[in-house]
Amino acid sequence: MRPRHAAHVWEDAADSLAQRDLAPSGFRRLVVVCAHPDDETLGAAGLLRAVAAAGGTVQVVLASDGEAALPEVAGTDRAALAGTRLRELADALAALEVPATVHRLGMPDSALRTDELTAALTPLLADADAWISPWREDPHPDHAAVGRACAAAAPVSAHGFGFPIWARTRFDPTDPVVPWDRAYRLRLSAADRAAKHRALDAYVSQRTVPPGGDRPVLSEATLAHFLGSREIYFREPPADGAPPELFAALYRDAADPWDVRTSWYERRKRAVLLAALPRERYELAAEPGCGLGELTRELAGRCDRLVATDVVDEAVAVTAQRVADLPAARVFRSDVDDPRALPDGVGLVVLSELLYYLPAERIGAVLDRAAAALRPGGDLVVAHWRQWPAEAPADGAAVHRGIVGDDRFTPLVEHLDEDFLLHVVRRR
User: What is the CATH number of domain 8-235?
Assistant: First the structure.
């Protein structure tokens, strides 16, 4: 058993170590998966309130009814305790002013299995655009099982987050297992904190000493860890990256799914990228992941030859048509780590909004290939949205830190604003 820590240390760590604030207003359907009733209030009351206040829907999935919460008390009527805890959950949600739908899986408390949970959760998470659960590394085995199952069951298009519960009382926040590089904090208003306090008051069975027992499950000292002004969430990105089929479907459903032709963000990003190129002209350039070819067309005006590739047939077809009148541009289908996408002797490589969609080992392989393909003195440009797309295994900022710190390259240009970050590095 790890030692307990003062209630404030995790809040202090959230302020100093978490690099992002969670913005839940865009979560239109949030699925909250709990091992037991009260997980939702201890770890995520503020988020539930924020989503509901923004007009989103909240669905709570209970893996168990929490019937084994008092294992040390002889003679506990588990069926009765389960009924009590379900009523307490309803009262807690009312106190939070969150009109949530509750799904009960009825699995055994203190014996949850990841494989069974994954199968049960898959249909419930299918249409979610965000899910949260106890953190997969939380020291309670039921919490860990739920966190692992959510990550396995959720669609790649859903934002996923784990929230620490018993970790806040038993782990030092500086423990290496705590992934602050993936951490978000949610700041709670005075009204949020008061509602959370009322909701926790609803869990009478957990806050009072049971007959025959000697302590409550949730003591005042324990509750102090959860009644502060910060909630903490760890991003749970998809491990395998975004499949090409996902992007193909987006292109089939909408001619321009990211508004690359018209949005100010996209137009400004292209203008900044082109202005950041250190040379007026390049003999040979490569643009893997060319998308719909808007940047391709402008790059072609700065190159004698340009190789533009994409793994999605629909994107290749549109880009080929977009640059059909530009003899400098050659467009074909190729994955990003195919040598044809990054030919030897290239003087410029542009990777825009691409790398964070790849798992870590593929990011490394692409950078290895780019370093091998670039001639000495050649330039590599990387640009990414500052938010973290649901489908992306990696955060753009982390990707850029790795590239800037790569001793094969010399940093030349850095651009950072509220929307995107861009770096130009030169091959040594």
Answer: 3.40.50.10320
